[in-house]
């Protein structure tokens, strides 16, 4: 077997509504949204106007600072409208899709060197799939990272099963890995779930450094894996790419066409029949699933996902929708009840530890508001990284750059400490605090 990484800390949240391994339908959207807000650090410049004709792969947006970085249309059709928000902030470009799709021909060929790979990524819009650490920002085309990481699985609540969604796309993934390997001297690190090692096709990928990983969530987070395999020091750069978009890159190389079609897991306690839907990023939520009036629609998982709303659109990086009940009701004397069989606890406060296999109909209710920090070891118990979360969080709150560096700001993104939100007895928004610290580092240090 490959390099093994066995993580002991973490927590699996037992939410009802995992998607069955079946495709419920294939969605051919009438309108798709190209959202610049999906890309952190991207300053959009509009390249099209209402009424323009585009193909799948045609540029729609460019970065104002680095104009070679493009965002392309996932479908062919006609630009229907440009959606703006406060102060004319560009929120989305809506494209009315053709009944029969036409694609830009990028050429079916294998890039010969790093410059050819960069050129292909840039002109297809897939450069935006590369995330640069530290800070989780858009990768800089002028840099050469010390390594590139791809996690082939997720341990987040109700996450899409990549063995089901991508198990038949090994050729595309191999082509993508071969291309990414030209961009770094440290190799492409591919992490595979140890629990399904024998049945997974991903460990067969060549020209990559393959690692088997076991453990509870967040063992599948690429940031946690990097912290154990190649920790990021000050001045170093590591790139990551979601495996879904790695397959899209390989598909371009193998066919010459940009096809972002993916299997999206529609999950959550609210969903009557959780299953997979074949769709494109930018597809309207209402075309993916029925949305009850009292449901919150989350693009992604319950810990780190984006609140899309019933009228929102699937994001560029998202392969999961989660629907939860909005927790608007109040529970009288809930804190004082000795028995709460419908409530899961990460500690032994209630008796959920007696039924480890039970799944819970969770909602969005916080059961209280933020309060002063309580010093416990609960953050350390769910963070399988060599950092002190509580000290890093406080350094971010204080805006102390020296202490943020000391306590590991280069190694984390908010998603890596998402479980701290869940277990925090003080009900603070830990991810927002980490993001506050990262934003300060970008402003002062980048």
Keywords:
six-stranded mixed beta sheet, 11 helices, 20 strands, seven-stranded mixed beta sheet, alpha/beta, 446 residues, globular
Please give the order of strands in the largest beta sheet.
1-14-13-12-15-10-11
Approximately how much helix is present in the residues?
Answer: 10-25%
Round the mean pLDDT to the nearest integer and report it.
94
Structural class by SSE content = alpha/beta
User: Helix tally?
Assistant: 11
Tell me the β content: 15-25%
Taking pLDDT < 50 over at least 5 consecutive residues as the criterion, the unreliable ranges are: none
- Overall body shape: globular
Radius of gyration (CA) equals 22 Å
Distance between the termini: 39 Å
Number of strands: 20
* Major sheet summary line: 7 strands, mixed
Give an overview in words:
It is a single chain. The protein is an alpha/beta fold and about 450 residues long. It has helices spanning about 115-125, 160-165, 170-180, 220-230, 245-255, 285-290, 380, 390-400, 400-405, 420-425, 430-445; strands spanning about 5, 25, 30-35, 45, 55, 60-65, 70, 75-85, 90-95, 130-135, 135-140, 145-150, 190-195, 210-215, 240, 260-265, 275-280, 295-300, 305, 320-325. The strands form 4 sheets. The chain has a 7-stranded mixed sheet with strand order 1-14-13-12-15-10-11, covered by helices on one side. The protein has a 6-stranded mixed sheet with strand order 2-17-16-20-18-19, with no helix packed on it. Strands 3-9-8-5 form a 4-stranded antiparallel sheet, with no helix packed on it. The two termini are about 40 Å apart. The mean pLDDT is about 95.
